[in-house]
Amino acid sequence: MSDCCTDFDSVISLKFSFLSILVFPFHLDYHLKKLCLRKVPSSFSLSYVKVKMLALFEQCSMPLARAVRPPRRTRVRPYSTVVAFAPSSTRGNSQVLLGLSENDLQQLALDFGQQSFRGKQLYHLIYKRKLREIQDFIQVPLGFRNDLEEAGWKVGRSPIFRTVTAADGTVKLLLKLEDNRLIETVGIPVEDNKGSVRLTACVSSQVGCPLRCSFCATGKGGFSRNLRRHEIVEQVLAIEEVFKRRVTNVVFMGMGEPMLNLKAVLEAHHCLNKDVQIGQRMMTISTVGVPNTIKKLASHKLQSTLAVSLHAPNQKLRETIVPSAKSYPLEALMRDCKEYFRETSRRVSFEYALLAGINDKVDHAVELAELLHQWGHGYHVNLIPFNPIEGSEYQRPYKKAVQAFANALESSKITVSVRQTRGLDANAACGQLRNEFQKTPLVTDSDNLESQPLIEFQKTPLVTDSDNLESQPLNTNVAVTC
Ligand code: SF4
């Protein structure tokens, strides 16, 4: 007998001894009896029996595999490469695919008894094709799609509840979250001198904001909850869907204070960078200042810009504009900014909302320049002429005052830019994001969107529905950013 046959026999006997322990009594008796009764040519009887035994093994091994397979796990492993970003999508009411990495999705496929390339397919369908529903993944077997849905998995995309288009092409989107709360996100297209278009997504990090800065509509609307990772990422995908082009820049300057939801913001930042493929340097994280968070952010050594909203050159004035500044003195904030630069080699940029007659005097500019020189050099200041909001006592400054402020900073060797106001007529400019469902969710179900009352900002007429973005511009004037 050849070696091959010996191996073959030993495999058979091994398999059978294993199976006989685990499965057999009934199947083996039944099949051997059948074999013995069957008439087969004597010269083939040995190999015939072997073949039948193999077939028997295969028959038995399927139920056996099912019996010994570990229970199906629908939880995914934490990020293997970035320990700090364990998937938050496995917590909360539903399990969400958006926000998972390619590795996570491959593991998920394996956990569902699929081959790992199915995970790659999921990744492609979520991040490249940007599909919204699992049942739209027609490249994936129906059984796998059904298994995912039965286990409570969703893609994690929210419907676009409303869109408003401003005359300058800025589009504000309202996304309706799973708990019927609405968040706002803004797409800002800018064409440069060479004709290429940059599309910036201004994303929200919370539903509302607890910090109540005096000039900000979002703060006035109250606070409901932090956004989850996928709820931040999906804002960028929704803007890409509406504009039918890639988002090039992301600023975390929408509703909410990103540093109060730092974990989800970092996870979303990671996903936007690795999976949605937006460069770290194309992203800006903004904060009004939350104690101990700038240090934490610095430890991640991101290559993104940190924008700190100062709004005043001294502590006393700052407290009147930014109430939360009482718990984070200006000196401590500036020290943390200096430390951030030391850790990351990325300079902090400072945002300064100009409020007529409050903080827009040349003296304030001189004081601001002194403050910045005291804590380092090379700082950049973005001046933001106030965007009017309903119920605010603040006024937008005259152009002359804005220019004088900018000149005073420049003559003190501080680089400065005056933020061009975008989306004012859609109430989408900085400090203007607010909707009346920040605290109270919508009451009717998602199928009945038309019956919802319009949102606060639609006091200016609603321009378009999400499917008709090309239509008419609004007709109003000027605005600002925060
Ligand atoms: S400016 Fe930013 S931090 Fe202040 S209330 Fe508005 S959203 Fe919150």
From TrEMBL:
Principal location: cytoplasm
Cofactor(s) needed for function: [4Fe-4S] cluster
Nucleotidyltransferase as UniProt keyword: no
GO function term, MF aspect, one: 4 iron, 4 sulfur cluster binding
GO terms, biological process: rRNA base methylation; tRNA methylation
GO terms under cellular component: cytoplasm
Protein's cellular compartments: Cytoplasm
Signal peptide per UniProt: none
Domain Radical SAM core, residue spans: 195-425
Pfam families linked to this entry: Radical_SAM
Keywords: 4Fe-4S, Cytoplasm, Disulfide bond, Iron, Iron-sulfur, Metal-binding, Methyltransferase, rRNA processing, S-adenosyl-L-methionine, Transferase
NCBIfam families registered for this protein in UniProt: rRNA_mod_RlmN (TIGR00048)
Protein's UniProt name: Radical SAM core domain-containing protein
